[in-house]
Amino acid sequence: VQLQASGGGLVQAGGALRLSCAASDSTLSSYTVAWFRQAPGKEREFVAAHRRNGGYTYYKDSVKSRFTISRDNAKNTVYLQMNSLKPEDTAVYYCAASSGVILSSIRQKDAYAYWGQGTLVTVSS
Question: What integer best gives the mean pLDDT of the chain?
Fold first, then answer.
């Protein structure tokens, strides 16, 4: 599957953005999907994930009350709604997907086989 991320941009602190990740085919419903981010000079880090079974969601602690991951299988699209954005949220955001992701690995980037190209989010103070 190919993934296409979009929706990034420049926003002031306290603002909101919604990222989208569109899949190239209708198999997205069979994958666990996730968002990661990478700030300049830092490692790529987990942000949020949505399991294929049961729709359980998982978040990085620092975004838990501000970000929401969701999916629309009919549109083959995953979303990341980001509210109350902070300058430290500035990064390139990547969507990822894979089948067979076990719970203990859901926050690990190596667990995901498919990646989008990334979309830049810049939060100004």
Answer: 95
